[in-house]
Amino acid sequence: xxxxxxxxxxxxxxxxxxxxxxxxxxxxxxxxxxxxxxxxxxxxxxxxxxxxxxxxxxxxxxxxxxxxxxxxxxxxxxxxxxxxxxxxxxxxxxxxxxxxxxxxxxxxxxxxxxxxxxxxxxxxxxxxxxxxxxxxxxxxxxxxxxxxxxxxxxxxxxxxxxxxxxxxxxxxxxxxxxxxxxxxxxxxxxxxxxxxxxxxxxxxxxxxxxxxxxxxxxxxxxxxxxxxxxxxxxxxxxxxxxxxxxxxxxxxxxxxxxxxxxxxxxxxxxxxxxxxxxxxxxxxxxxxxxxxxxxxxxxxxxxxxxxxxxxxxxxxxxxxxxxxxxxxxxxxxxxxxxxxxxxxxxxxxxxxxxxxxxxxxxxxxxxxxxxxxxxxxxxxxxxxxxxxxxxxxxxxxxxxxxxxxxxxxxxxxxxxxxxxxxxxxxxxxxxxx
Amino acid sequence: xxxxxxxxxxxxxxxxxxxxxxxxxxxxxxxxxxxxxxxxxxxxxxxxxxxxxxxxxxxxxxxxxxxxxxxxxxxxxxxxxxxxxxxxxxxxxxxxxxxxxxxxxxxxxxxxxxxxxxxxxxxxxxxxxxxxxxxxxxxxxxxxxxxxxxxxxxxxxxxxxxxxxxxxxxxxxxxxxxxxxxxxxxxxxxxxxxxxxxxxxxxxxxxxxxxxxxxxxxxxxxxxxxxxxxxxxxxxxxxxxxxxxxxxxxxxxxxxxxxxxxxxxxxxxxxxxxxxxxxxxxxxxxxxxxxxxxxxxxxxxxxxxxxxxxxxxxxxxxxxxxxxxxxxxxxxxxxxxxxxxxxxxxxxxxxxxxxxxxxxxxxxxxxxxxxxxxxxxxxxxxxxxxxxxxxxxxxxxxxxxxxxxxxxxxxxxxxxxxxxxxxxxxxxxxxxx
Lengths: 433, 433
Known about the structure:
Two copies of one chain form a homodimer. By secondary structure, chain A is an alpha/beta fold. The first copy, chain A, has 13 helices and 17 strands. Chain A has helices spanning 29-39, 57-72, 117-132, 159-164, 170-175, 184-192, 220-223, 262-277, 316-324, 326-333, 354-367, 382-385, 412-430; strands spanning 76-79, 85-89, 99-104, 141-146, 199-200, 209-215, 228-234, 236-245, 249-250, 285-287, 291-294, 300-301, 304-313, 338-347, 350-351, 371-376, 391-396. Chain A is globular, with a radius of gyration of 23 Å. Chain A starts with 28 loop residues before the first helix and ends with a helix.
């Protein structure tokens, strides 16, 4: 790295972890926290959470705010065909592909203030601190905001990164529709309008390396009182859609013996699935998060019930064995109704780059920040970027491991510790160490 | 009755039940059937059903069509403050309160072509036939279209008749909101605009007697191969709303042991309720027709599940005993979540007027139409009219007893047989026999 004349003086650390062994520019942890709070006002919910689903007006407003901050730091915007946004800090050598960091700004319908936002704001803070310190990295650095990570409004999850990495066809993503029938192709222009001066970036453009910071969304770091996690990989996931079909009938007149009640059969199927996925070690993750009843009228026996299955496991063979049995388990329990099961999405377990894991661990050690290695329970955009470049992730703890909830919470100290590791690792990679 | 010069000649019956022992004007069963088919085009669904919920544009269009037909028959329209529509066939003596018949034009979200529509069109056919036959009854006859019988869009069911009979406050009904937040007060003007020339009718105006024709919506008449049912009463009903509250959490990261999954707890509660309401005789009607999951996202553990209970029984003491135990049954099964139960509506069993039941049975006998007495499993507007006047109902069979379903079906012969009994009974009552 090269420092120019305007580089600020490093002062004695005010952080929790003071045994800093390498000289580093100081991130502004107050600004980092304030920006989280400011961003959380867009789509704010009454109990402190955020509803800022992909490609809504809130999502576009969040981008505008982010780009305004990035402008102040001299970052240059570009967008690709699926609406991913790239903010570039040009290196001394413009030739090599960028070192990339980022995450997403969209949230769950009742999401928290840190899921996604942290990775974006940590990246922004890292790049901003380096600029302010007058550091000119050899390779370019880029902050990326992946479009539609949550996949709540438009399935699948991690849509933007999957399209960028070539794992999902652009046309398929553009054709996805929300529950009101609006397609991604319909909704995307309003999001892109938030960055009218952005250049164009080709899908699949080369990347030198990728690091994503994120709250853990699980209980491990907190339980171990560890401020930073180095992520070794992401467990695999299979999504299924189950449709139970019965017959609508009048609630007041139809004897139980003549009913084909889709909801009562769905209850039997759900109990059978609960048993099927039950493991004493509590490693399997089995969730039915979405359910629709039709016609959903109090005085009509339900004709049709549709529900989702989200099944995850770190072991690919368990994913195959338990997942493949889902249709048979449903079939055995559905009488007197009928059932069909389709697989909506699948992604095998992912291992992050060994070299990058070592770089991140070494960086944390150099900064004197306690850290541990762990597996990610949640899926992240980093999963797809592994198709293009060495990729890795940094986790910070969140209260109670709770996420996808308005109760989601993290401390300014945790956010700052992860950002320090991120910034130093980015600089290491950019300067080719 | 008095016949005028234009009375049509009675011809030999073409009906199924030919042993007519009294002279009667002939209803036009072809017209009756055709009007059902024509009405079913408004809100038609792909599989032959109808979605024409209360106070929608479809509901208004159905009224316009009905009033056009009623105009041809010289009936005079009036509306009351909750949107019930009255179509009057003035008697020779305008003083006594009218003999009333009717039902409703609104349907379930996935309803059939006969539920409600039959009672309206049978009444119209009866009054039209009497007009065409030149008969001038002593008392006035009135066809009533009760507003919002189904209660799907705006709770409760039988709203219009309940308000008319003084069993539900007008202000309370006007304040009811649909799931989009639209109130009855907001939606009513568009319905009333369908009858711009209607006079005003006061709520609770006197009625001499009321007969409602309806499809049975149950299997009894079909099983007994009986074309006409004389209804002795309506079983009682209690509606509950159950809310299960857990905690939202990330589907990929949260171990089963740390979850408070509202859907999995709701499944336990539903199983417990199924057991609670299970009776070997299959007389209890227990239905969970509506369920909402929140936030309803595939990768979030559900935070809240709300569902409806529709519980019916002919015996008031059973309604009390099983219904009162619902909160405790839910409580015992909901761990580790929380539950609250509220009673949304209740109506005790209703017995129809003994004299009117006898009149209807005698009329059917005189017409040579086989009939039987039975209890109604479904609630009907007639329930509330019992508060104002002697009331009764005529049922006709529907295929498989299926109703509140697109599969709902009835035969032209069944519709005609019920209409013949209705018309003769109305005339008997109007002429004071």
